[in-house]
Specification:
Layout: H1 4-16, H2 19-25, H3 30-44, E1 49-51, E2 56-58, H4 60-88, E3 91-98, H5 100-103, H6 107-117, E4 120-127, H7 130-138, E5 144-149, E6 159-173, E7 183-185, H8 186-189, E8 193-196, H9 203-215, E9 221-225, H10 229-237, E10 243-246, E11 257-263, E12 268-275, H11 281-290
Parallel strand pairs: 3-4, 3-5, 7-11, 8-9
Antiparallel strand pairs: 1-2, 5-12, 6-10, 6-11, 6-12
Length: 295
């Protein structure tokens, strides 16, 4: 093992090329410095300096060692700050999953603010539905995730921060008779062919939608399922049916699709940020960044 002290002695001598001046900078006498350099040369198996009675010069091996020694000393000097930054959550890695709907809402703004506040954090993003995120949490593959669920139904077993509550709106083919209305009741759309996400990717929200149909004595006529919200909108554009989507998706403009709000007892959804209690400090730092900006 090469000690950092030996590398520092080498660097100072390489800069001064004079044992006396180097020893003075190092606050030591010349004989111990000479012995220290000889010991380092023995450990490395190469002569680092060419010495004569009148001069000291770097050998080719010494010239090769100098930039590496400086780099190692700089890294060692920065080590406390690096460790402290990681402990404070301002450095490290954040593995963040998210449902697609939040990407049409405040997520881009939160990420920009977090990257500006913590430029030493590497953010790894992964688009994933709730079921996939739960598997990833169990496998230790993600640190936190934004999930979509019915109001008040965040998955148990996690720390959770509700970041968004918004109504569900109805996506309709633009040629549909209901598209001429500015707002609708759920009864007006109750018998329309429905495209919806599979229950297993957001069970509480799926059940809430079906429950609203049943509350008015109707049964949803499901004609197609799709995992991603934007895919549901594309299927609506293709004329396959209508779809309930978060209001933030109204920013997703697709030819052949219009969005209409629902009156009466409106359907709603929530997006929550989930993380484990034992999550690394960088997660808490991200939570702090998101919390003041929640809607």
């Amino acid at each position: 093992m090469i000690e950092l002290r030996s590398l520092r002695q080498f660097v100072v001598l390489a800069e001064e090329l004079h044992y006396g001046r180097a020893a003075e900078r190092l606050h030591m006498t010349q004989p111990p410095l000479t012995l220290a350099i000889q010991s380092l040369e023995k450990r490395l198996g190469a002569r680092l300096f060419e010495r004569t009675q009148r001069s000291v010069a770097l050998s080719p091996a010494g010239a090769a060692l100098l930039p590496e020694a400086r780099r190692l000393l700089a890294q060692a000097q920065a080590l406390p700050q690096t460790v402290q930054a990681a402990a404070a959550g301002s450095a490290g890695q954040l593995r963040l999953a998210f449902v697609s709907s939040i990407a049409y809402g405040p997520l881009p703004r939160w990420l920009r603010a977090f990257r500006a506040a913590c430029p030493q954090v590497t953010v790894q993003l992964r688009e994933a539905t709730l079921d996939v995120q739960l598997q990833a949490f169990a496998a230790g593959e993600i640190d936190a995730g934004f999930v979509l669920h019915a109001p008040g139904a965040a998955p148990p077993g996690f720390e959770a921060l509700r970041v968004l509550r918004e109504p569900l709106v109805l996506a309709l083919p633009d040629g549909h008779a209901l598209a001429r209305k500015r707002s609708l009741s759920i009864a007006a759309a109750a018998h329309e062919p429905l495209v919806i996400f599979p229950r297993h990717i957001a069970p509480s929200l799926f059940d809430a939608i079906v429950g609203h149909y049943r509350a008015i004595g109707a049964t949803p006529h499901i004609v197609q399922e799709a995992i991603q919200m934007q895919t549901l909108v594309n299927l609506v554009s293709a004329g396959m049916g209508v779809a309930w989507v978060p209001a933030s998706l109204m920013q997703l403009q697709r030819p052949g699709v219009v969005y209409r709000r629902v009156t009466g007892t409106p359907l709603a959804c929530e997006t929550s940020l989930l993380w484990r209690t034992e999550a690394p400090p960088v997660v808490q730092r991200f939570v702090q960044q998101v919390r003041p900006r929640r809607q």
